[in-house]
Every structure is written in structure tokens, then in C-alpha cells.
Amino acid sequence: MPQLTPTDQTRMVRGAKRANYDTDTVHAIIDAALICHVAQILPGQKPLVTPTAHWRDGSWLYWHGLASARNVAATPAQPVCINICLVDGLVMARSAFHHSVNYRSVTLFGVPETITDPAEKEHQLERFLDRVSPGRWPQLRPITASELKATGLVRLSITEASAKVRNGPPVDDEADSDWPVWAGVMPLQRTWGNPEPDPAGLQPGVEPPLMG
After folding, report:
1. Which domain of life is it from (predicted)?
2. Domains of the chain, with CATH numbers?
3. Read out DSSP for 69-85?
4. pTM
5. What is the per-residue pLDDT across 6-22, written as a single tens digit (0 to 9) for each?
6. 132: pLDDT confidence band, cut at 50, 70 and 90?
7. What gap in Å lies between CA 37 and CA 198, rounded to an integer?
């Protein structure tokens, strides 16, 4: 499997045994998550972290927002750090000290690029929506030129990145093995709930969207 090359920023020291530089693992975690957190330190400003929806196309991570938003407009030529994290379960140990969380996370570093070509912007926005709700884009009222202009789009190369994964049961001290309390993993499952129609009304015969 292809591997990412660790750098001074992505090479893990704390919890190094959980580090993973496999490209397929990094991509799978990015694809499984809906939200990433974009961290920036802009000139003359305080640190800023912005949660935003993201998607992947090959070896690029994309996100969008208002063209004037800081996590879009201010990113070119400015380095960012992005974190994505999925919680898979709570690890319940026999002591408070050894409780933990099963999780999958990815951290990325780099300088984003701005996408300005209208055709490429529309193509990527369709990819984003298709990721969330397959087949929905062709059903929608076509996007207008002014809407496309008002939407900023940036991407970050997935080259300086690493994954960190924790899975499995609790790791208790041997002396605690007979302590009379339940220990194990409480898995966390994420599913879509029942659709809630727009209270303003819907056209007759329309069906709820498919969800990715």
C-alpha cells in the first residue's frame, strides 16, 4: 500500500504506535467524515479554527464557503492545519485512568490553492453534493453565475498528512483484573434519522433524498 512520507510536522512522538501513514487509511478517514476543522494563524490576528464540510477528489481535500469567508479568502499563501476525527466508541476500563476512546483521525498540513475556474468550481460542488446525497444535483434548480461567484472554493494537497487510530478493548492494570465493574467498549453508531419535510410544503409526489 502507498505510504505518505512523515515530516517534522506529521511524525508522531506521543502515541507513536497509533500512527498510520498509509494513504488508503488516510483517504478512508477523510471520506467517512462530513466535517473537518481548518486552523489558521492569519497575520495580525488571533488563531482561528473553522469547522466546515469537506470532500476528497483523488489526492486533494476540498472545502467551500462564502468567497469572503476567512477559511476560504485568506487561505491562499497562508499555511493551515486541518484535523478530522471520528469517534467509534467509548472504552470503559476498571479505573478512571485507563478509560479511553476508540477513534480514527487525520491531521493535514499545507498551503491551500484557490479554484477560480467556474466550470471546475461547479464540477467540484456537484461532487460534494453527490457525496452527501447521490443523484441530487441534477434534480435541483441549476446554480446561477452569481451564486457560483459568491462561493469560494479551495483545495489542499493530501501529501503532508498522517492518521492516528485507536481501537480495541481497555488496557487495564493486571492488578485491577478482578475489580467488580463492567469493562469493555461501548460502540458509537451514526445513522440518518427519519426525513423531516419542509413545513412550508412540498410538490406532490416528491421523494426524500438518498443519503450517502
Report:
1. Bacteria
2. 16-169 (2.30.110.10)
3. -HHHHT-TTS-EEEEEE
4. 0.92
5. 998 899 877 778 888 99
6. very high
7. 29
